[in-house]
Amino acid sequence: MKEQRDNSAPVPLLIDGIEWRLRDETGAANRDSGLRLEPGTITVLMGPNGAGKTTLLEKLAGLRPLEGLQVSYGSETLWRQGWTRKKRLNERALRRYAYASQSPEDGLFSRSMREELDYSLRPYALSDREKEERRNSAMVAVGWDSSWLSRDPYQMSGGERRRAAIASVFVTPAPWLFLDEPTAGLDGAGHETLARQLENSKKDGKGILLISHDSDWALPMADIVLLLSVDGSLRKCSREELLIHPEWLEETGMNVPEWLWIAHLMVSNGLSADQAYSPAEAATAWPGKLREAAEAQEMRAVERQRRKERPKSAIRHRLTEFDPRSVWLSYVLISTGLLTLADWVALGVGAIIVFLLLTAGKVSLRRWRGLIVNYAVFSVLTSAIFAWGASGGGSQFEGEAFMGTLFTFVRTMLVLLLGLAIPLVMSPLSLRRSLEQMLTFKGKTAKWVQQLILTVTLMMRFIPVLLDLWERFVRIFLARGKSISRNPVAIGRRLRDVSLPFLLALFRLGDEVTLALESRGVGFSGRPTSGTRLRWRKRDYVFACGASALAIGLWFFANR
Amino acid sequence: MELQSIEPMVLKEVFVYGMNALDEPSLRLDSVSLTLAAAEWLTVVGVNGSGKSTLARLLAGLEPEGRHGEVNRGFAGDRSCPIVLQQPKSQLFGETPREEISFALEWRGVSSDQISFFVDRALYKTGLTEVADEPWERLSGGQQQLAAIAAATASDTTSLLVLDEATSMLDEENRNAVKRVVRDLYKKGTAVVWVTQRLDELDPDSRVLAIGEGRVIFDGEVREFLYGVSGETADELSSLSPCLRAGLRLPYLPAMALNLRRQGKLDDPLPVTAQEWRKVMGNFGVEANERAAR
Q1: B chain contacts of residue A294, beta-carbon cutoff 8 Å
Q2: In this structure, is residue B124 part of a structural domain?
Q3: Which chain A residues have a beta carbon less than 8 Å from that of B160?
């Protein structure tokens, strides 16, 4: 019971390790600790594209590594150092917030509204009666009656699905609500309902942190405005202060919306901030001296001049400098060399060489970590099963058979590791060119070869996109399920939950890709022309020669 | 090269039947009729699920399944037209703007020796020359969308360009950059279909088409779309503004203008653009001063 009350009791959100300043303080006053958001307030987070609004929100929700930030909900820190000295998420802190990501309706997966709400409630130990109450109030919050509880989210329209997703955020007793662009695509009535509900939650003592493009919808209810600059620093002010200093928005790299300038002019001419934030009240209080229009325009022009460029540092991977064919050839050569290795010592040397090559090429395989770990587990398990099988079904474990099978797996893994590096250092298009040129005879490429190449390169192009998509749903479900448990049953359940929305999103993506390809003319004219022809240069020969030398060396070593 | 026709594109009572996520039939477009002239700018607005994307794809010549009714593509020709979608990631096939544009040109069948010239020209027109060889991670969302536009329009003169919420994920600065490029194309004679749900993107001189539940709710000028026709019924606010009838939220400035008109403080034509608003504010200030002086 105590734990439960803890879950919903109002707590401040404390953020350390981010540069911030108050109101009109200058850059010199930058603090990096003590940023505090109070319960019972609505905070609107604003900033230009690329400043990292969503990233910041995800960090606060524990969906991303903090990178120097420290976050706690009251006395519960978001990440705790476990006994292994490894930082782990604190589930008690996770239960302090409910999170609606961008397009949260993509994450719906149940076959009824009631199941969907119960899923959000599961991390909280509530009695059946309390659950009932929470479900009902969540339905009221989005303007629905309880008959909607039995509705299937997949049979709802786009707007209704958004409401369903927002209801599953309001249903939790968590004291903090995070909403990322909740009104994008919502109709006018939806805007009103949501604003009303946020005000109600605020009265109940909840803290609300909100990102919204619809500044004229969000700002009028903001108690606190956080302005995020491209350099990652924050400015904290009130909505009244922002109305007096709209240029603060420009300092973050944003443009000031036209309506805010007009509202600013009205405040400069004697209207109160509250009047200016409401179009109806502003209209009623309208007549006043308006002197500043020309001046304001001039100020904007100056500000725009002063705005600094986004810093750019463009270093592409050095392997992209080579002809893709020489990279391919080298890969094939070295892989052949690796596959000739026949004993564990030689394999050790091979592993060192692969490691050195990856290091020298500055290739980070972090992107593929999941795949590599899975492969390793799979290899060991398969080898173990094989070892049992080799003993003729007896209870004896054949050590030799185990090592023998494992050896093959490890050798393949080395080849795989090198191969995984290729899409990281080579773009799909240059890959396509290299394949095409290798498969072209007398200036002609067979049609089926064309299609094959296009398919392969498109798959390569979209693997990172698919990974991103998968990670997005994993984050959505971590934010809702609030479980970091690593036992197989929990992992299995999470996989099942994520799969359906992921697959649906995948179909949508596939649909869009097809459209985009069609509109680019792919498939119209029989075969494409080729813009640039690849040319071997001296460094490509050197590269390929080095690889052959290495392959021959490996072969000699294997046969020593 | 085919002859450029100047016949308008005509849709006559078009229905599109689709399937929802559960494979159940649903009506996406409901008796839509409209005419799009060559070199015209048409803004399409509506809430999520109103059918505006279906319409956009139909106009772009990407034939949806289950269409009934008459479509005469006129000036737009029978090939599909370039379309730019909301998410850059589903429509970029290269790794850099340069690669993206040459990919598109290669598939459009442009001869090899012309490609590099066309690529440079497309980069120049969209202002991407400086970042031509930067990978996507280093480009802003707006620049990625510009690359998609550059690739879609690189080959020759584009008769029609369709943008389906291409700027909905962008901030104002990126949005303006995209809009500038599209407006340049429009000035050179490309017809533009600009689908959006953001009403602050409306251009006062352009034509706006509001879609709700698959039906055309309004087709006319922006000023009338926001403020309705002024007249005797001017006090009935919600029945008047087609914007509200389409279920959209009236933004701050138009909402204030309607209130001002109701209170007799502002006369038609009500302001739409920033310039008009400043003029109104300025004039009012002067008038108030004059009144005070008298």
Answers
A1: 282
A2: yes
A3: none
pLDDT tens profile B148-171: 888 888 876 688 999 998 887 777
CB nearest to A461's CB, from B93, B197, B251: B93
- Which of residues A131, A153, A172 is at a domain's end? A172
Instruction: Number of helices (H) and strands (E) in chain A: give both, helices first.
Output: 22, 13
Strands A224-228 and A97-100, bridge-based pairing: unpaired
Whether residue B22 and residue A519 make contact (CB cut-off 8 A), yes or no, is no
Full domain range(s) for residue B149: 89-157
Q: Which domain-ending residue is among A127, A156, A172?
A: A172
Question: What's the domain count of chain B?
Answer: 2
* pLDDT for res A18: 85
Binary contact (A532, B102; C-beta < 8 A): yes
| One domain, residues B12 and B78 | yes
Tell me if chain A has a CB within 8 Å of the CB of B220.
no
Q: Is B174 on the interface with A (CB under 8 A)?
A: yes
Q: Chain B contacts of A291, Cβ < 8 Å?
A: 285
Q: What is the pLDDT of residues A44-55, one digit of tens each?
A: 999 887 788 888
Answer yes or no: do B30 and B150 share one domain. no
Q: Nearest-CA residue of chain A relative to B27?
A: A157
Nearest to B95 among A258, A429, A468 (CB): A429
Do B5 and B39 fall into the same domain? yes
**Together in a domain, B73 and B101:** no
Residues 6+ apart with CB under 8 A from A294: B282
Q: Chain B closest CA to A290's CA: distance in Å?
A: 5
- Same structural domain, A158 and A70: no
Q: Does residue A471 sit in the same domain as residue A526?
A: yes
pLDDT at position A429, please?
66
Please give the pLDDT value at position A420: 76
Q: Which two tokens stand for residue A195?
A: 């604003």
Looking at the structure, tell me whether residues B73 and B115 fall in a common domain: no
Q: Against a cut of 0.90, is the pTM above it?
A: no
**Residue A121 belongs to domain spanning:** 111-172
Is residue A297 in some structural domain? no
Q: Residue A455: count other Cβ atoms within 10 Å of its Cβ.
A: 10
ipTM score here? 0.80
**Between chains, do A294 and B282 touch, taking CB under 8 Å as contact?**
yes
Task: Please write down the long-range contacts of B256-264, taking CB distance under 8 Å and 24 or more positions apart.
Answer: B256/A262, B256/A279, B256/A280, B256/A282, B256/A283, B257/B226, B257/B227, B258/B227, B259/A279, B259/A280, B259/A282, B259/A283, B259/A284, B260/A283, B260/A286, B261/B227, B261/B230, B261/B234, B262/B234, B262/B235, B262/B237, B263/A283, B263/A284, B263/A286
| Same domain assignment for residues B239 and B208 | yes
Q: Which of B48, B54, B153 to mutate to test the interface with A (most CBs of A within 10 A)?
A: B48
Q: Where are the alpha helices (DSSP H) in A155-232?
A: 158-170, 188-203, 215-218
Report if residue B259 sits inside a domain: no
